[in-house]
Amino acid sequence: MMDAVFAEYRGTQPQADDRLSRQLVELGLARLTGPEEAGGSGAGWYEAAELLSAAARHGVRVPLAEHDLLACWLLDATGLPSTGAVRTVCLLDEHGASRGVPWAAGAERIVVVWNAGGEYRAADVDTERLAVTAGFNTIGEPRDTVTADVSILDGTSVPADLVTQLWLKSALVRAIQVCAALDRIVQLSVEHATSRVQFGRPLARFQAVQHLIADLAAEAALARAATEAALTTAVSTDWSGQSLEFRVAAARSCAGHATSVVVRNAHQVHGAIGTTQEHRLHEFTRAALAWRSEFGSVRYWDQRVTDAALAAGASGLWNLVTG
After folding, report:
1. Are residues 245 and 189 in the same domain?
2. How many alpha carbons lie under 13 Å from residue 280 in its C-beta half-sphere?
3. Same structural domain, 127 and 272
């Protein structure tokens, strides 16, 4: 069902098709995880992950996660109304600015979070009351700079653990999207190798090509397994498990490193055709490369994995990995 929703919108570019937006609202997918009393569908993160993956597999760029899983979730968690507008969310720095905010320029409202004297506060602000400078990531998705004068905002107190959850949820969203893009790249590579004939036989019959595809498929599977483990821990512990941050870090680290191998090998398998604008491969290779660097770089998440392993020590490492 999820794939059917996006099938006719394949390749929809950053500013989402109005028809798709209306259809998502009509089907209850725009606020898939929102409570029913607030106009949501009452679904969970497993369903949301399927929806995000379906959009990524079809190359459809819409702010599903930013609106439902991040901005509106935070409003619900703090007791603020979350209906009636398309939203995104950002964490302001000490200068009242936030860079690389997804979909800010096109949002109707932005949930801004800031630290005020050691206490986090949040406000649901009309975008017109903020200074928004347009920017884009490498696949053309809006990644804007938002600046706010927090002294004039009526903020609501936000517990620090909710801000931590917001960061981990944001990071896991990107891991889910990267994995979906990698799976699509694997599919395209297998289809190309089995259908493309070179020197009188399919590319898939050449041992070198077989090795390239085996490596990229294995890396994509590892990233997906790590991401599914993090998602399972998050859901089963209601985002409060002791090992959750380590599992999210492991998922992001695996997905980040897998992207390097999958993108490189896929373009080698496809050859020159894979670098053309007409072929769809670039829609997914560029997306994976862009998403793996958002909400923490690969190096950042590698360091978090290392820090957790060192903190666990020799006696606690096994439990950290398997617990």
Report:
1. yes
2. 18
3. no
Q: Cα(48)–Cα(56) distance, rounded to whole angstroms?
A: 12
Same domain, 146 and 182: no
Q: Kindly report, residue by residue over 151-182, the tens digit of the pLDDT.
A: 999 899 999 999 999 999 999 999 999 999 99
Q: Which stretch of DSSP H or E encloses residue 20?
A: helix 18-26
Span 293-300, mean pLDDT? 98
Whether the predicted model's global pTM rises above the 0.85 cut: yes
Give the E-state strand segments of 204-262 in sequence order: none
Mean pLDDT of 263-286: 94
Residues 6+ apart with CB under 8 A from 31: 38, 39, 40, 41, 67, 68, 72, 82
Spell 129-143 as b/e; 16+ CB within 10 A means b. Answer: ebebeeeebebebbb
The reported pLDDT for the residue numbered 10 is 66
Q: Is the dihedral of CA 103, 158, 177, 58 positive or negative?
A: negative
Tokens 């821990």 belong to 233
**Token pair listed for 252:** 């992001």
Distance of CA 92 to the CA centre of its chain: 20
Residue range 17-45, pLDDT digits in tens: 678 888 888 889 999 999 988 778 999 99
Could you count the other beta carbons within 10 Å of the beta carbon of residue 200?
Answer: 6
**229 within some domain:** yes
CATH number of the domain bearing residue 175: 1.20.140.10
Within this chain, do residues 228 and 95 fall inside the same structural domain, yes or no? Answer: no
CB 48 within 8 A of CB 172: no
82 sits in which H/E element: none
Last residue of a domain, one of 41, 60, 79: 60
Task: Print the domain residue range for 109.
Answer: 70-158
